[in-house]
Prior knowledge:
Helices cover 52% and strands 15% of the residues. The chain is α/β, with parallel strands linked by helices. Helix 1 (8-15) packs across helix 2, helix 1 packs parallel to helix 3 and helix 5 packs across helix 6 (94-105). 37% of the residues are buried.
Amino acid sequence: MRKLMLDTNILLDLLAARHPFFDEASILFLMAEKGSVELAVSSLSIVNTHFVLRKQLKEQDTRKVLRDLRILVKVLPLDQKITDMALNSDFDDFEDAVQYQTALEYGQEIIITRNLKDFKTSSIPVMTADQYISSI
């Protein structure tokens, strides 16, 4: 079973029903539901997703959505080691550096994002949801 690290934008594509990316994100979650992939996110992604969704939904609804999400995704911790590695990385975007370092630290096989250019120095394969789905 492939271990896929999801960037925050993939979570938001699904949970905020952002078109035209919603369908691709939903396929990844269906795959996880069937047990063909293992999905993981950084704890930072949960916080960022809450922040964005809270602007569209009531607090109790936002938390319910995130509780439901937790059924299908593993939340990986953000700690001092990951923070330090991200701060000292060559990534231009700190949030992406945190995502990348979390993926490295926890043995994720592929990073799924819509921002491929932000991960140009990644030693882990980086794909869009569509690219991953097309590759299998």
